[in-house]
Design a protein that fits this description.
It holds the Pfam family DoxX. InterPro entries: DoxX, DoxX-like_oxidoreductase. Its main location: membrane. It comes from Streptomyces ruber. Belongs to the DoxX family. The protein is mainly α. The chain has one domain. It is built from seven helices and no strands. Helix 1 packs across helix 5. It starts with a helix and ends with a helix.
Length: 180
């Protein structure tokens, strides 16, 4: 096995593992599969953690995870798939950040690992064992990487920023309530 073959096999394993995990998490949100709560349950939960409107937030997170994860696993539209998944994981990390880094304490470790791996795959590309390669990289051009990552970063910053303001406002209201 040549070093080039090893690289392609390594990228395939990263794509399958990361994409599979993301797709399963998204399917929990959208369809209630794998012990998830489906779109209705996830909508209420998203509202409770500050992402509003809940249904639109649940749909966006579910589609980014399911779609991004599936496309990453297939190695198709890799820049967009990796960026979408990374954006969803940045939103998840924002929820877990107050709990510190480590997952056993409810921290952002897991979301960060999935997000960084997704972003890394968007940057490196899918390798030769991919649909992008089979389709001559029509959906995996060099210019697509910065466009996809920048677009996702901007959208994620807006959504997470709005959530942060909502959470701060709710905390301030709760602190004032006992004195009203």
């Amino acid at each position: 096995m040549t070093p080039y073959d090893r690289r392609d096999l390594g990228l395939l394993l990263l794509r399958l593992g990361t994409g599979g995990v993301l797709a399963a998490h998204g399917a929990q949100k959208l369809f209630g599969w794998f012990g998830g709560h489906g779109l209705e349950g996830t909508s209420g939960w998203m509202e409770s953690i500050g992402y509003a409107p809940g249904r639109a937030s649940a749909m966006a997170a579910g589609l980014a995870e399911t779609g991004g994860g599936t496309l990453l696993a297939l190695g198709l539209a890799t820049p967009a798939a990796g960026a979408a998944a990374a954006g969803a994981m940045a939103g998840a990390a924002a929820v877990h950040t107050p709990n510190g880094f480590f997952a056993q304490e409810g921290g952002y470790e897991y979301a960060a690992a999935l997000g960084l791996t997704s972003a890394g795959l968007a940057v490196t590309g899918p390798g030769r064992l991919s649909l992008d390669h089979a389709f001559r990289h029509v959906l995996n051009r060099g210019w697509m990487v910065p466009v996809a990552l920048a677009g996702t970063a901007a959208a994620t910053a807006l959504v997470v920023g709005a959530r942060s303001r909502r959470v701060r406002s709710q905390k301030a209201e709760q602190q004032q309530a006992p004195f009203d």
